[in-house]
Amino acid sequence: MTGNSLGAPAGRTEGRHTGPDGVLGAPAERREGRQKVTGAARYAAEYAPPGRAHAWPVPATIARGRVTAVDTSAALALPGVLAVLTPDDAPRTAAPEDATLAVLQGPDVPHRGWCVALAVADSLETARAAARAVRVAYKEEPHHAELDPGHRDAYEPEEVNAGYPGRVEHGAPEAAFAAAEVRVDVTYRVPPLHNHPMEPHASTAQWDGDRLTVYTSSQGGTTVRSVLAQMFELSEDRITVVTEHVGGGFGSKGTPRPDVVLAVMAARRTGRPVTVAYPRRYLPTTVGHRAPTVQRLRLGANADGRFTAVLHEVTTHTSRVKEFVEQAAVPARMMYATPNLLSAHLVVPLDVPTPSWMRAPGEAPGMYALESAVDELADALGTDPVELRIRNEPEREPDSGKPFSSRHLVECLREGARRFGWAERDPRTRSRTEGPLLLGTGVAAATYPAAAVPATATARALPDGTFTVRINATDIGTGARTVLAQIAADALGAPLDRVRTEIGHSDLPSAWLAGGSMGTASWGWAVHEACAELASRLAAHTGPPPADGIETRADTAGRADADSPYSRHAFGAHFAEVAVDTVTGETRVRRLLGIFAAGRILNSRTARSQFVGGMTMGLGMALTEHSTLDRAFGDFTEADLASYHVPAHADVPDIEADWIDEDDPHLNPMGSKGIGEIGIVGTAAAIGNAVHHATGIRFRELPLTPDRIITRLLSEG
Questions:
Q1: Distance between CA atoms of 366 and 191, rounded to whole angstroms?
Q2: Which one-letter DSSP state was computed for residue 355?
């Protein structure tokens, strides 16, 4: 073990048995699986109250300016059209804290794709036709949509996403870098990226007098209810939000998006239930994106490979609607031991859609650049890249000085290297070939914060020997229902099939959204406490529970959000093998291996699925996914899945994901860490480092598409 590691030795989680029948950690099948494969699971746009209408948004076709007139006559003349909402006559709302939700509240157009009208009709097809018949006149204004690190409006934000300081500096990083025996000064670029969940953003809204019911595709129904209550000036107890099944979000559904506000407005105007389902082509300008980053890394080291300076400076963009700053320089603050550290951000406000969360915001692009630069330093030193990372393992978090609650990165690196066959690797570039193919292998480390927020839950014991656990958690495809049932069964000492979970409804005890890899850690804490208290009460109770059962309630406020004396993170190590075709420039990933240290694994089946899903998304980030922000139009040119290429089955090799058995008592009662995001962190860097090993050429801009590869191979090969 290293540093302040408090965990157990490495081992396979599958062999660990906990609770009365090994229920916690067991590979239990997802409870909603049959509903989903048979079509019984209903998503937001599939709720069809009597008299339901459909609405279709009209996006702005200019990059900046204002609406001067909206001609709705042709649209309203179509049979079945109920209304067309415009900035002049749409229902007024209170100003939201999130300005991206202030749709149809005025004539200003802050970016292309901003909603400037909404057509409502009896059918989806008619609503779409009506939207296309709306004519909008604009007064255009000059716009700027190109990220330029030297832009005169660039500024250093006080805070970046997740509340981190925009700038952290320790020691004398500039002087230490200048004096270092070995130096690397490189710049990496990551393009705009998009979430593109399988289920596009959709909401169905229905008014019954002054009561509002909303079915929405969101990662957090509690948040949706509070936002709608503020905007429409209702008490929260007059609003019901249902998020029973959600077809993915990857951060883009973390908070309410315009679809839910538009659906509520249209339902109020027409007096009928209304569904708004955003077309996929509209998503890039409407629901957030991963902002592009230009990242300068300067690493200084002694001849023995110990870091003397780490400087990570990031430039990114935000919109003029609201500030969102991708925290890509933050991981450098805790990753490696160094006496001299600079981690800083610059942000440029542009006339672009507002960026937002995308799986592992900050860590995914930031660790790509950092781990690629570490690989470059290993080359400069002539040191094995695995050993260089191990050599710079910190005893405490470099930024805060806090001890780690647990940190098993070294174990992940060593176990991954053993299983990958790293010792047999020839470190020379272009040392392995198969005909026209160049073969290479690469490694990268991964990290993601482990945290929790307050939640409430109830647990009830019924006379028939069953239990019901209730909490407004949201299952976005991760298996939350199943894992919460396992936590409950473990705390109750009951068989898993005796526990029923109710989630995804705002009438349930409130809980935070599914995001930041904090869902299970937060919800599970409340569920564990409610069930532990219930088990204690049952032990003191004589005979069966009364007819209405025995119920307990838990609220983790004041504890889940309490300051911790520890730095809490999950860690991992990624290994990749690639084949680069010297004729076509195509890169194929042959092997991906991820070894993770993420606390106690609560369900080995769903955990492996999450790790593999994140690694697959990282493969897409490395090889295929990108958007081009057209500076002339202020719009993303890759706006659908025909042009924005996510990995398909044919692109994904036999990915192996595993973990070491980590016991961390400083997290939550389960000892678990979030696993939904760490899988993507480091994958792109491992693949990029493998491509360098294969070709001898360092590519510093993602994605590694064939045109970029072949151009460099022809010019430098």
A1: 12
A2: P
Output the furthest CA–CA distance in the chain (Å, rounded). 82
**Catalytic member of 244, 363, 502, 677:** 677
Helix or strand holding residue 684 (H, E)? helix 683-695
Q: Look up residue 241 and give its two tokens.
A: 């939000």
Query: Would the pLDDT of 17 be above 50?
Result: no
Q: At 657, is the secondary structure helix, strand, or coil? A: strand
- Regarding pTM above 0.90, the answer is yes
Would you list the DSSP string of 565-615?
SSB-EEEEEEEEEEEEETTT--EEEEEEEEEEE-BS-SBHHHHHHHHHHHH
Residues 6+ apart with CB under 8 A from 203: 44, 45, 214, 215, 216, 217, 259, 260, 262, 263, 264, 275, 276
Cα distances from 642 to residues 117, 359, 638, 647, in angstroms, run 27, 21, 8, 12
* Six-digit token string for 554: 């838990």
Neighbours of 231 (CB within 10 A): 23
How many CB atoms sit inside 10 A of residue 584's CB?
A: 11
Phi and psi, residue 260, nearest 5°: -75, -40
Active site residue 677: yes
pLDDT, tens digit, for every residue of 513-553?
999 999 999 999 999 999 999 999 999 999 999 999 999 99
Beta pairing partners, 581: 437
pLDDT digit string (tens) for 213-237? 999 999 999 999 999 999 999 999 9
Cα–Cα separations (whole angstroms), residue 79 to 125, 126, 127, 129, 420: 11, 8, 10, 11, 64
What would the mean pLDDT of 7-30 be, rounded to a whole number? Answer: 57
CB atoms within 10 A of CB 549: 17
C-alpha angle with apex 519: 516 to 523, nearest 5 degrees? Answer: 150
Write the CA distances from 452 to 9, 204, 429, 522, 523, integer angstroms: 25, 30, 44, 5, 9
